Amino acid sequence: MTKIGILALQGAFTEHEQVLKKLGVETVQIRNRQDWEAHTDLDGLILPGGESTVMGKLLHDLDLFEPIKTKINAGLPVFGTCAGLILLAKTIVGDQTKHLASMDINVARNAYGRQLGSFVTDADFKGIGEIPMVFIRGPIIEAVRPEVEILAKVNGAIVAAREKQILVTSFHPELTGDERVHAYFLEMVTQVKQDKL
Ligand code: GLN
């Protein structure tokens, strides 16, 4: 059975857990180094929304930063939503901070401003079709390197992308009741398991 870890330090992690359970997948919450070491057999990892600065600091404080970064770089499938996307970006625009820096994208935090930062819209997601997208003070992807595939845009701005086994969305698919983006990630996980990616 597929087993997905969900980083559970802060933010919207229980919602991801519920979606994955509906899709028949085993989930484990990663709260500390002990949890991480108890589950060396994870097939994938979700980095949820929340506050990237807080999560980034906690990753270091809890000694999770290096082992997680190493495993992602070694090919562990990972899905970052919103703050999780920021954690995975190699470049944060106007900021020297680097977190896991696993994906070749430039990301602008709080790109929709603080007042109009939260909204819901429908847009096309490559390979899935039109889906609802919930934005909560989300980032946008300002630039991608050629190896990154753009999966969705809203008003011209990139809001979903993929590089090999790394998937990111600026929005929160776990808050819509539509499970198709999670199913898309699980398909990536299966491909990695079968050595096809
Ligand atoms: N604004 C948050 C950040 O910059 C992300 C918001 C979210 O994850 N919903 O980290």
Automatic annotation (TrEMBL):
Enzyme Commission number(s) of this protein: 4.3.3.6, 3.5.1.2
Metabolic or biological pathway: Cofactor biosynthesis; pyridoxal 5'-phosphate biosynthesis
Active-site residues annotated for this sequence: 82 (nucleophile), 172 (charge relay system), 174 (charge relay system)
One annotated Gene Ontology cellular component of this protein: glutaminase complex
Keyword Transferase applies: yes
SUPFAM superfamilies linked to this entry: Class I glutamine amidotransferase-like
Keywords recorded for this protein, A-Z: Glutamine amidotransferase, Hydrolase, Lyase, Pyridoxal phosphate, Transferase
Residues where L-glutamine binds: 50-52, 109, 136-137
Any coiled-coil regions, as ranges: none
Assembly: In the presence of PdxS, forms a dodecamer of heterodimers. Only shows activity in the heterodimer.
Family: Belongs to the glutaminase PdxT/SNO family.
Name of the featured protein: Pyridoxal 5'-phosphate synthase subunit PdxT
Organism: Streptococcus salivarius K12
Organism phylogeny: Bacteria, Bacillati, Bacillota, Bacilli, Lactobacillales
